[in-house]
Protein: Trafficking protein particle complex subunit
Organism: Toxostoma redivivum
Amino acid sequence: MAIFSVYVVNKAGGLIYQLDHYAPRADTEKTFSFPLDLVLRPHDERVVVAFGQRDGIRVGHAVLAINGAEVNGRFTADGKDVLEFLANPANYPVSIRFGRHRLSSNEKLMLASMFHSLFAIGSQLSPEVGSSGIEMLETDTFKLHCFQTLTGIKFMVLADPRQTGIDALLRKIYEIYSDFALKNPFYSLEMPIRCELFDQNLKLALEVAEKAGPFGPGS
């Protein structure tokens, strides 16, 4: 079981804190001969697998590195277009590492804002007055848990579907936020959280939750 990441979103929908706690590694590196037996296409400023699956490489996986050098979006480390490079028989055999695309800071900001909007839509769609909004989204590989305070701050945790004790963890994170962010005289409300004590106590809380599940009294 694992806790993947934590997001804190202010009442306006802005991302004010994000922590990647654990990222499952699903990278696959293979050496290919010409012609490449996978169909690659540009997508959102990166090159992804559009057709063909083999040896752990799946449709949607992005090209992360070529010959051991990290790619930069749609370009190799030395500035060449990835698709043009892989279309040239002279560049083979070639080693390519595929894997899940890592979210950039801008993408995390955008996704946090999108969830804020979905949360509001969920509240309005509810047949009951005063709905709390989206509290959990579930997929086959992770669950997104959300806790909103009375002041509109949202705490979101992405975790393994089997991870227990997330409700208690969310309230523990709120307690840490109150103790080490709100009580910090240098912190301004609704602004990004940059506090070493907040970081330290949050990471400790995540480790405790992973190992022990629910928080007990006085934890």
